[in-house]
C-alpha cells in the first residue's frame, strides 16, 4: 500500500528505490520503537497498575478491618449498655426490696413504740391509782385518828386519862427491853 502510493506519487521509476523513501524508514523506526518499548512500558504500566491495585486492596482491607473493629466496638458498647441496664434494674429492684423491708421494720418499730408507750401509760396510771389510794388511806387514817381523838377526849374522863398514861409508861419499860 505504501509502495503503490509512493509509485503513484513519484512515478514508476521511483518505486525501485522504496528503500530510499524516508516515510518508510519513519514507519519502520516507529514500529521498532513501539516493539522495543512495548515490554518495558507494558511492564512499567503493569507494575504501576499492580501497585495501584495493591494500594486499593490495602485501603479496602484497612476499611474492612476498621469496619470490623467498629462493629466489635459497637457490640462491646451494646453489651456494656445491656449490662449497665441490667445492673440498674438490679439496683432498682434491690432498692425497692430494701425500701419495703425498711417500711415493714419502721411499722414494726412504731408498733413496738406504741406498745411501750401504752405500757408506760398503764404503769403511770397504776402508780397514780396507788398513790391516790395511799393518799385516801392517809386521809382516812388522819380522819379516823382525829375522830378517835375527839371521841376519846369527849368520852374519857380525867381519871381514865391518868390511868391510861400510867399504863403506857409501865408498858414502855417492857417494849424497850
Structural features, described:
The protein is mainly α and 177 residues long. It has one domain (2-176). It contains three helices and no strands. The chain has helices at residues 2-10, 22-155, 158-176. The chain is rod-shaped, with a radius of gyration of 68 Å. The termini are far apart.
The total count of helices amounts to 3
Beta content: under 5%
Percent helix:
over 70%
Mean pLDDT: 87
Cα distance spanning the termini:
180 Å
Write down the Rg. Answer: 68 Å
Number of strands: 0
Structural class: mainly alpha
User: Which descriptor suits the 3D outline?
Assistant: rod-shaped
Main sheet makeup: none
Order of helices and strands: HHH
The quaternary organization reads as single chain
- Which spans of ≥5 residues are poorly predicted at pLDDT below 50? none
Q: Number of domains in the coordinates? A: 1
Features:
mainly alpha
Blueprint of the fold:
Blueprint: H1 2-10, H2 22-155, H3 158-176
Briefly, what is this?
The chain has 177 residues and is mainly α. The protein is built from 3 helices and no strands.
Amino acid at each position: 500500500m505504501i509502495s503503490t502510493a509512493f509509485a503513484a506519487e513519484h512515478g514508476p521509476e521511483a518505486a525501485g528505490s522504496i528503500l530510499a523513501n524516508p516515510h518508510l524508514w519513519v514507519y519502520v523506526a516507529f514500529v521498532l520503537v513501539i516493539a522495543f518499548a512495548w515490554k518495558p512500558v507494558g511492564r512499567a504500566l503493569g507494575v504501576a497498575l499492580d501497585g495501584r491495585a495493591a494500594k486499593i486492596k490495602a485501603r479496602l482491607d484497612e476499611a474492612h478491618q476498621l469496619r470490623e473493629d467498629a462493629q466489635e466496638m459497637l457490640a462491646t458498647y451494646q453489651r456494656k449498655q445491656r449490662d449497665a441496664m441490667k445492673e440498674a434494674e438490679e439496683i432498682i429492684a434491690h432498692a425497692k426490696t430494701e425500701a419495703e423491708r425498711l417500711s415493714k421494720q419502721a411499722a414494726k418499730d412504731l408498733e413496738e413504740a406504741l406498745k411501750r408507750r401504752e405500757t408506760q401509760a398503764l404503769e403511770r396510771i397504776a402508780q397514780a391509782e396507788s398513790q391516790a389510794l395511799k393518799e385516801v388511806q392517809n386521809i382516812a387514817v388522819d380522819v379516823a385518828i382525829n375522830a378517835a381523838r375527839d371521841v376519846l377526849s369527849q368520852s374519857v374522863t380525867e381519871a381514865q386519862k391518868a390511868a391510861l398514861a400510867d399504863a403506857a409508861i409501865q408498858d414502855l419499860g417492857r417494849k424497850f427491853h
